[in-house]
Amino acid sequence: MAHVNRDKKKLLSRVRRVAGQVAALEQALQADADCSAVLIQIAAAKGAMHSLMMEVLTGHLAEHVVAERDEAVRIRETATIVELLRGYTK
Amino acid sequence: MAHVNRDKKKLLSRVRRVAGQVAALEQALQADADCSAVLIQIAAAKGAMHSLMMEVLTGHLAEHVVAERDEAVRIRETATIVELLRGYTK
Amino acid sequence: MAHVNRDKKKLLSRVRRVAGQVAALEQALQADADCSAVLIQIAAAKGAMHSLMMEVLTGHLAEHVVAERDEAVRIRETATIVELLRGYTK
Amino acid sequence: MAHVNRDKKKLLSRVRRVAGQVAALEQALQADADCSAVLIQIAAAKGAMHSLMMEVLTGHLAEHVVAERDEAVRIRETATIVELLRGYTK
Predict the structure, then answer these.
(1) Test mutation, C21, C36, C54, C89, chain D, max D CBs within 10 A
(2) Which of A2, A61, C42, C54 yields a CA-CA distance of 20 to 30 A from C80?
(3) How does pLDDT run along chain D (90 residues), one tens digit per residue?
């Protein structure tokens, strides 16, 4: 997972931002915040999770598929990714 | 947001579980974990966020629409929810 | 489903547009069109399906929940809708 | 788009099934069918569209990325796909 190493700082800062959004959400629930505001916060945190997914997927494809010289490995890695994407949304 | 108060304990425990998933994700990235495993963890955390969204939405509908006696308020609250759902997914 | 009757023309024109998109997709596949173009067409047709879903949901909520005087019916209809939304996306 | 040629029969039969679902939906709206039933039909047609997307994506990756010998082409094709997936869901 060298690409993650390469992009590690960027991904870690992104995942920490998501952690911050979840912490803010917990506080909003604790403070009995307005319900629509809470729904908007949840939707935003879920959207940030999707962006993170796309970021990790991009790095994964770049290293294990695009840059991979062995076609057998490319086949295997691509199958894993498609399987993941199939169940990722509806 | 009395329904959130009523279900507060349940929702808070759910949001803390999501926070735990995001923390585990940060550790996996720090530890250069296997990339497919990371993608699976992100997908799971995103799914947990969706379940939380549905939980808060259920409580919101129950209190501000179903139990609401004033039809004008029901109209307003429903419009807000539909607007939210429209942009929530694709 | 009187709201659908009321909005019937609008909904029917929308569903026919989706049918047109699916027919164009079939032609593109028949004509061995460029693959990225096909993927974009599929994504667009899926998006149109989501808009239709939101349109029918809006009418359904308006009639069977918002305008419904019997709270027991509002409870039942809302439960059905939340159940549907839960499995609608991830 | 040779992979689509290869899988053409399979994809065409799938897209025709979606067309059938959309036609059934139009009839249901025409016949003032029960609203929940209509919502379930729309969700099913949208799900079929997602399966079709995954099918075309699988073939596209297999041919233009996995089997592609030129790394520059693999880079370009993968970038297009990631861009598409980014906006495909939320």
Answers:
(1) C36
(2) C42
(3) 555 566 889 999 999 999 999 999 999 999 999 999 999 999 999 999 999 999 999 999 999 999 999 999 999 999 999 999 999 999
Q: For the domain bounded by A2-88, which CATH number is listed?
A: 1.20.58.1000
Distance between CA D10 and CA C82 in Å, rounded?
A: 35
Q: Are B25 and A53 in contact (CB under 8 A)?
A: no
Does D65 contact A82 at a Cβ distance shorter than 8 Å?
A: no
For residue range C7-44, what is the model confidence (pLDDT) as tens digits? 889 999 999 999 999 999 999 999 999 999 999 999 99
**Which amino acid, residue C13?**
S
Chain B within 8 Å of A24 (Cβ-Cβ)? no
Q: What is the dihedral of CA D7, D12, D13, D17, to 10 degrees?
A: 140
What residue type is assigned to position C21 of the chain? Q
Report the pLDDT value the prediction gives residue D24, as an integer from 0 to 100: 97
Q: How many CA atoms lie within 13 A of A23 on its CB side?
A: 8
Tell whether C9 is within 8 A of chain D (Cβ): no
Among A48, A88, C79, C60, smallest CA distance to B57 is for C79
Look up residue C9 and give its two tokens. Answer: 């023309």
